[in-house]
Design brief:
Length: 754
């Protein structure tokens, strides 16, 4: 037996010790923060990259930025001057960014919502409710390219910034000899805040590729994300903010589609579709979103991946309707046990291609936001259509959530979820009686000492028309994070009867603990920024099969001063199969001999990953694996290569190769995944993206091509082409290249302010 329950007891005692220590120190006071007064202007501001208006001349200057990378103990090498002012309609921000060195700026492209550690730009982070949990993010590049996003969970990790959110704001930028200027105007109607408020939290920072530094105000430790809300300044309004007035937006769309399914020999279909969304500010801090017959055809399709796992993969939500205040609905529980996952709504799986496809939504309503500094609420209701191909009936889907702030930035939350068959030929809709799936849950998320101690505890329970055994999920996490030391404890207990219909729970009926930790050294070096060892332990067992899995990881990471990173790891696995499994995860129709249920395997492999300097025109990420795999061996290499045609676009190639060798009679495999991509931006308003994907695991070729013209703010014309083929190598060197389905969509959206 590769596991000792004495080890489990020691790990649990270690966890209890750190938990008690966390709660003991959790009540210590937070550090004081800098503040300034923002003055209202009566003079107009033109967003032209020229800061000669009286409002800018009279505004206070914030220029004492400090480095956050590569160090957090030095003043900025390159000077940056931020100024802020406002009028009845807008919050204005300007930045003069001076250069110490000649040369071009690093610009990924002219596409909105750029992201990357080496890309030049200035950013402003806003926390209107001063809850240190949720906020708004706005950024501008020297070429005037915008990016905006929503911040959740205090911006503890990079995933807490969602740049998929899209809203209306205005900007201007201009490059001069030796410096560049950014001007930003954010409508108060775009933000969510409480009328009469006297202060907001704010943070300002700049990424400077020439100096290879990230500078920030106020100071933020370098081991945290730059937008972390625990390190913000207080912006005090010279007069309490007033209600910005009626805020109603209507966003209708019209779409024309032609499609053909070659596998069913159906004739080509042409259809027109109309619908739209509406956004209504019930209060300045509480928003109602409505949608009728929504269409998400312009959302980029999921990239294919090589799936060698026994369980479902996770793909993030990118549809606009679900993004604002998404954390109120989507962040309950744990990554492996989400009671609500919005991609269950309006998306189903095409059984012929294995890809996610749209499932028609008739209508939806979504109320979300803050009642005040202490309370947040969310309510969602959606009616989805029946899907014969996926054998899915029409469902009514409801989610209600309530959050109460506790202390500085901890919170207690409750959620209720209901999926109910709306009706059929003989039965009307009713609250109980048939085909319903409900979940009730409580979460406590805590954050002490400016993110030094964070974590959560949750309990969720499911209710269905048929009684289930153990229909619950419970978990606890504890994270201790300082500049040198990082320690994490996670445990989950997922009952065998817990399977929320609207959730993401890839596996149930198990218990899991996963402590991890690391130590980081910061040498005085011109080459290495930091380095250190890490250990990750994951143990899984259940009441039926006993001890079923472990994954032990030991590694060493090196972060270089040029922002490249290297990670070396050794992984040891133990897997008990409670059902038959094909380690190549080949399609069911291939009928490969599977490893038998009840067998177990212990295997080890080594892994190395390298990410190159992101400021170069040619960048790449490469990762390799070599070692044992179940009862055989595995060698793999995965890479992503990008070349910037600055500033007009990016050419990239995403590729992976897995060589799996298993003894007879089990199937060996060579699995390829190729994904060239062309992302061209003619102007800041015209974008063209095409990518191809070939996945040998499912013998599928996918083409997705999207043209977008943003003719007015948040108003677009889209032309989207998708194509799927079956592609395989046959005997005697021949190939089979057969079309599966094809679609062409023309869609136009327009944003009206009422």
């Amino acid at each position: 037996m590769p596991f000792s329950f004495v080890t489990l007891k020691l790990l649990y005692l270690f966890f209890v010790f750190f938990s008690l220590l966390a709660f003991k120190v959790g009540q210590l006071p937070a550090q004081s923060r800098p503040s300034f007064v923002i003055q209202k202007t009566e003079s107009p501001i033109v967003l032209d990259g020229v800061v000669d208006e009286a409002a800018w001349i009279n505004a206070s200057v914030i220029s004492d930025l400090q480095q956050q990378f590569p160090y957090d103990t030095l003043a900025a090498k390159a000077k940056t001057e931020f100024r802020l002012t406002y009028d009845d309609d807008f919050l204005y921000v300007s930045a003069i960014s001076y250069d110490n060195r000649a040369g071009d700026y690093v610009i990924s492209s002219l596409r909105r919502d750029y992201r990357g550690p080496g890309l030049d730009g200035v950013s402003v982070v806003i926390d209107p409710f001063q809850d240190l949990t949720n906020g708004f993010f706005f950024g501008l590049s020297p070429m005037g390219v915008q990016r905006e996003g929503l911040i959740s969970n205090g911006f503890l990790v990079s995933e807490d910034l969602d740049l998929s959110w899209d809203n209306k704001w205005f900007s201007g930028a201009r490059i001069y000899e030796g410096y560049w200027i950014a001007e930003i105007a954010i409508p108060f109607k775009t933000l969510r805040f409480k009328a009469g408020t006297k202060a907001w939290n704010i943070k300002l920072y700049r990424i400077d590729s020439k100096e290879n530094e990230r500078t920030i105000w106020p100071w933020t430790p370098r081991f945290f994300e730059p937008g972390n809300l625990n390190y913000t300044a207080e912006m005090v309004w010279d007069k309490p903010l007033q209600n910005p007035g009626s805020n109603i937006s209507i966003i209708p769309y019209a779409a024309a589609r032609t499609s053909q399914n070659f596998q069913t020999n159906e004739p080509q279909k042409e259809q027109a579709q109309f619908g739209g969304d509406a956004k209504m500010a019930i209060t300045p801090s509480l928003n109602l979103d409505l949608t009728v017959n929504p269409d998400f055809s312009q959302v980029e399709v999921d990239r294919q991946v090589t799936n060698l796992d026994r369980f479902e993969l996770f793909f993030p939500e990118r549809r606009q309707f679900f993004l604002e205040n998404a954390d109120l609905f989507a962040s309950y529980g744990h990554l492996r046990a989400r009671p609500f996952f919005s991609r269950r709504l309006g998306i189903t799986r095409d059984q012929t291609t294995g890809q996610n496809i749209q499932n028609k939504i008739y209508f939806g309503a979504r109320l979300s936001g803050n009642l005040n500094k202490l309370w947040r609420i969310g309510f969602l209701n959606m009616q989805t259509a029946a899907d014969a191909q996926a054998e899915t009936p029409s469902f009514n889907n409801t989610v209600a959530t309530l959050q109460r702030r506790v202390g500085t930035n901890s919170n207690v939350r409750a959620i209720l979820i209901n999926q109910q068959v709306f009706g059929n030929d003989t039965l009307p809709f009713r609250v109980a009686g048939y085909q319903y799936n409900r979940v009730a849950g409580l979460d406590y998320n805590y954050n002490f000492l400016n993110n030094k101690w964070t974590g959560n505890i949750f309990y969720h329970r499911q209710f269905t028309e048929h009684e289930q055994e153990a229909p619950f999920a419970h978990g606890y996490s504890l994270v201790y994070n300082t500049q040198a030391v990082n320690f994490n404890w996670f445990h989950q207990i997922i009952g065998g009867g817990y399977a929320p219909a609207l959730g993401y729970v890839p596996r149930n009926g198990y218990k899991r603990i996963s402590p991890s930790g690391g130590y980081t050294f910061y040498p005085q070096s011109k080459v290495i920024n930091n380095h250190g060892p890490m250990v990750d332990i994951a143990l899984t067992w259940d009441d039926v099969f006993g001890y079923t899995d472990h994954e032990y990881t030991a590694g060493y990471s090196v972060a270089f001063q040029n922002q490249a990173t290297l990670l070396l790891q050794v992984k040891d696995f133990y897997t008990y199969l409670f059902r038959n499994f094909d380690p190549t995860n080949s399609p069911a129709e291939e009928q490969a001999t599977k490893l038998p249920e009840g067998s177990d395997y212990q295997y080890t492999w080594m892994q190395a990953s390298f990410i190159s300097n992101p400021r170069k025109l040619l960048t790449y990420t490469v990762s390799g694996v070599a070692g044992e795999y179940f009862n055989g061996t595995r060698k793999s290499i995965t890479g992503l290569v990008n070349y910037r045609i600055q500033p007009y676009g990016v050419l990239s190639l995403d590729a992976s190769y897995n060589q799996i060798r298993l003894p007879a009679p089990y199937k060996s495999a060579d699995i390829y995944l190729l994904g060239p991509r062309f992302d061209l931006t003619v102007t800041r308003a015209v974008f063209f993206t095409t990518f191809f994907q070939y996945n040998s695991q499912y013998k599928n070729v996918n083409i997705n091509s999207r043209f977008q013209w943003r003719f007015k703010p948040v108003s677009d014309l889209f032309v989207v082409y998708t194509d799927n083929y079956y592609y395989s190598f046959e005997s005697a060197g021949t190939t089979n290249f057969t079309p599966k389905n094809r679609a062409l969509v023309l869609k136009i959206t327009y944003w009206f302010n009422v």
